[in-house]
Amino acid sequence: MKKTVVLLGNYGSGKSELALNIAVKSREKGSSVMVDLDIINPYFRSSDMENLLHEKQVDIIKPIYAGTGVEGLSLPPDVYSVFIDDHKTVVFDVGGDATGSIALGQYKRNFEMLENLEVCFVVNTCRPLSNSTDAILELIGEITATSRLDIDCIINNTNLSNETTGEVLASGYRIIEEVSKETGIPVGYTAGTREVLKQFTEYGIRHGFSPKYIGEYIEIERFMRRDWERFVKDAGVYNL
């Protein structure tokens, strides 16, 4: 059965990295397509990795003019095709905040017709706008209102890019546990590289983490490292 995954979350949550990983790994089981709905953020846009996706035989639908330097991106009509075509997996990478998720709202009727839809809220508690329970609850309220979709699960993707350790990932566990309890939204996944997930598991065992607030593991590769380095350079940030 065809599966559609929608990734929501604020800037720096790691949605695009996860979208790339899910789309690439899903290709091993059948055709996959990634829909880049990020018409807001110019730095971590997943369509910047178009060459990688082509190499991995993953299709991509991206904003018109993405990657050309032209401002005022708009969504192509091709987006509608993914709701009815024969791709086995469809991954939506959505713009980083409530404003960005407005782009998703126009497809509400199409999403309602899907039999296998998973809407995931990606959280990185190392980011200023999602470093507390209250901040995340506010984000969830704003994004669900504008996207017009209910969230099925939370993904703990707490990270500091290449400086991430198991303990860093674990630092998001308690906050996300509280968010899950407050909202009733389950923690579906915890994401990280193989080494980070190994460290996180060991840390969690020592500190009594509940599997209920860990979910399944998503092992990722860091495909978007170069884009992070470009962001740091362009933003003039050198001491992270």
Structure characterization notes:
It contains 9 helices and 8 strands. The protein is of the alpha/beta class. It has one domain: Rossmann fold (3-Layer(aba) Sandwich). An 8-stranded parallel β-sheet has the order 3-2-4-1-5-6-7-8, with helices on both faces. The radius of gyration is 17 Å and the shape is globular. The N and C termini lie far apart (43 Å). Mean pLDDT is 85; it is low at 65-73 and 231-240.
Stated plainly, the CATH topology is called Rossmann fold
Write down the oligomeric state.
single chain
Number of domain modules: 1
Report the helical percentage.
25-40%
Secondary structure: elements and pairs:
Layout: E1 3-8, H1 15-26, E2 32-37, H2 50-55, E3 59-61, E4 89-94, H3 98-105, H4 108-112, E5 117-123, H5 133-147, E6 153-156, H6 166-171, H7 173-183, E7 187-192, H8 194-206, E8 216-219, H9 225-235
Parallel strand pairs: 1-4, 1-5, 2-3, 2-4, 5-6, 6-7, 7-8
Helix pairs in contact: 3-5, 5-7
Any key phrases for this structure?
single chain; 240 residues; alpha/beta; Rossmann fold; 8-stranded parallel sheet; 9 helices; 36% helix; globular; disordered C terminus
How do you describe this structure in short?
36% of the residues lie in helices and 18% in strands.
